[in-house]
Design a protein that fits this description.
The complex is a heterodimer. By secondary structure, chain A is an alpha/beta fold. Chain B has a domain of 59 residues. Classes of the chains: A alpha/beta, B mainly alpha.
Chain lengths: 501, 109
């Protein structure tokens, strides 16, 4: 792989170079498409690429610039969209066989906003089926691979998006995050991932997994890029009643103002009290915390005592909501339908279509969620989880009395081997332990690269913010980045596995 | 039905979820499972619910359920007619459609 050119290093640099006429949008787009052609057969980051339309969009930007028209904040920047988000004219699979043949009739609101801002849409990225997974291995189209080591997972569920941005197959990406699906793959691939506050970004045109948890957000090479991209996609949308009415502040205005006086809470349960935390991950995180302190932040020990119940609470609520949201895939209105058999009733049609169309993990979660909501078990499982959700939420509320942001590892481990946990769903669920609480409480959170593990794989620091305070979160993230630097993957994806057997 | 006794929270036998419960749940979810799949999910769900049993020990007396991360009321837009998607475009996505209708197996008489 050839090293990234300066204008490929970040979305903001790319937009600036195009606006200044230093490079054309067409050149930038061609470079991204060339990388996709060369590397996607190995990385499997994209499920769909539309070169002709992308080049058309790029040329339109170049013509607009030459004509002296005002360019949008993302003019000519090649970006990808997770294949859980509707782009008019491109197939939408959600990583599932059940949506075979489906092309959405409209853009999602976030995609409309990307177009208005002048972005060039390269294609749709790979994901765990219906965003259910932490490794991208539940995709019906095979896993995406980690550009740092192609024998390793890229994380999930937005694994294709993270692999694409890390390897330079597009400068930025839109992902979605229900329990860590932006932050964890961002950490495992060495890029920046931002999960905005619940309600910050419209979900119109986004395939629903768990509606009280899902958010769309940026996956980028730099913190400033994440700020720019959220500025474009965020804010009220009359098409989504769950979208908050508050306007976004200027997210780039205070990015460089540093962290002097900022109170950074360090949850005991995410470090000293965490089980299964890789000591080398821990040491990278500690170094980042020390660097924040060195720049004038105060580290405040805090407790999130209900953390150990987060996993059960999350999986019961997420799967319960999923069991309702995925009821629409029934073989009647769109997607795939089972072969008709004589004597079929409509329930046979539904059940066989769904049994054949959904993969193993999706069926497992639909069953768990249906069980948790079913008569006789609802109070003990779903409703119990909703009560514990409030306790988890209240832990964070208490933390905000003494701190402005919280910090800890994004993932307890670095990218693991493909296939390592496929037969052990519970072990895979445990990988999400640090990211789930944020979604239950509706908070914004950011993963920023903080260097490499001795295995040569990236480590991410998670910063968690107060509801709707993405600005402070990004400012803290920019400070971490200033010390830790951004990461570029090795020149050639290394297929050998450096960890001893 | 209110269940607070942790022993009643899930019918587990040797760590696996009861076969009838899995069958009934699959039926409620409209999921046709192959016999080997049903067997696998009995074990998987049993193990997952077994791990989640800890939740039952937590005292949540007086804690109201939280079903949504914000307590804010959802804003409604003005109720006005706006352009939608052409019905033919929607029907064009259906596995089977005819004369403006989705086709399914006979459901009455």
């Amino acid at each position: 792989m050839t090293a990234l050119l300066p204008h490929e290093q970040s979305l903001t640099a790319c937009a600036q170079a195009i606006a200044a006429g230093e490079v054309t949008a067409e050149t930038v787009t061609r470079a991204a498409l060339d990388r996709i052609e060369a590397q996607n057969p190995l990385l499997n980051a994209y499920l769909h690429v539309d070169s002709a339309v992308a080049l058309q969009q790029a040329r339109a930007v170049d013509l607009a610039r030459v004509a002296g028209k005002e360019l949008g904040p993302l003019a000519g920047v090649p970006v990808s969209v997770k294949d859980l988000i509707a782009v008019q004219g491109m197939p939408l699979t959600a990583g599932s066989r059940i949506l075979q043949g489906y092309t959405p009739p409209r853009d999602a609101t976030v995609v409309e906003r990307l177009r208005t801002a002048g972005a060039v849409l390269l294609g749709k990225t790979n994901l765990d089926e219906f965003a259910m997974g932490s490794s991208n291995e539940s995709s019906a189209f095979g896993p995406a691979r980690n550009p740092w080591n192609t024998q390793r997972v890229p994380g999930g569920s937005s694994g294709g998006a993270a692999a694409a941005v890390a390897a330079g197959l597009g400068v930025a990406a839109l992902g979605t995050d229900t329990g860590g699906s932006i932050r964890q793959p961002a950490a495992l691939c060495g890029i920046v991932g931002l999960k905005p506050s619940y309600g910050r970004v419209s979900r119109l045109g986004v395939v629903a997994y768990a509606s009280s948890l899902d958010q769309v957000g940026p996956m980028t090479r730099t913190v400033r890029d994440a700020a720019r991209l959220l500025q474009v996609i965020g804010g009220p949308d009359p098409g989504d009643a769950t979208c908050d009415l508050r306007a976004l502040p200027d997210l780039e205005a205070n990015l460089d103002q540093g962290v002097a006086g900022l109170r950074v809470g360090v949850p005991h349960e995410f470090l000293d009290g965490a089980e299964g935390l890789d000591p080398a991950v821990r040491s990278r995180v500690d170094a980042a915390l020390q660097a924040l302190q060195g720049r004038g932040a105060t580290l405040v020990p805090v407790a999130l005592p209900h953390t150990r119940h987060t996993l059960a609470t999350y999986y019961l609520i997420a799967t319960a909501e999923a069991s309702a949201n995925l009821a629409r895939y029934d073989g009647v209105r769109f997607g795939r339908r089972t072969e008709a058999r004589p004597g079929d009733g409509i329930d046979d049609l539904y059940a066989r279509t769904r049994g054949e169309g959904f993969g193993t993990e999706v069926k497992r979660r639909i069953l768990l969620g249906t069980f948790a909501l079913s008569a006789g078990y609802r109070d003990a499982w779903y409703e119990k989880a909703c009560r514990v959700r409030r306790l988890i939420h209240d832990d964070f509320e208490r933390a905000w009395q003494t701190c402005d942001v919280l910090a800890g590892p994004t993932s307890p481990v670095v990218a693991w081997k493909l296939g390592e946990f496929v037969q052990d769903p519970l072990a895979m669920y445990l990988m999400d332990v640090f990211t789930l609480g944020v979604n239950l409480a509706g908070l914004p959170a950011l993963s920023v690269p903080v260097g490499l593990h001795p295995d040569g794989l990236p480590v991410g620091l998670q910063l968690i913010g107060r509801p709707f305070d993405e600005a402070t979160l990004l400012r803290a993230g920019a400070t971490v980045e200033a010390d830790a630097g951004t990461l570029e993957p090795p020149e050639t994806p290394d297929a050998s596995d450096r960890r001893p057997a | 039905m209110t269940q607070t006794d942790p022993r009643l929270a899930a019918p587990l036998e040797h760590g696996a979820l009861d076969a009838d419960v899995v069958r009934r749940t699959a039926q409620l979810a409209r999921l046709a499972l192959q016999p080997d799949e049903a067997h696998r999910y009995q074990a998987d769900l049993g193990r997952i619910l077994g791990y989640f049993q800890d939740l039952q020990d937590l005292d949540t007396t007086g804690v109201p359920p939280m079903v949504h991360p914000t307590d804010a009321a959802m804003p409604l837009r003005e109720d006005e007619v706006r352009p939608g998607v052409d019905p033919q475009t929607i029907l064009g996505q259906a596995p089977r459609a005819e004369t403006g209708l989705f086709l399914v197996p006979r459901v009455v008489g």
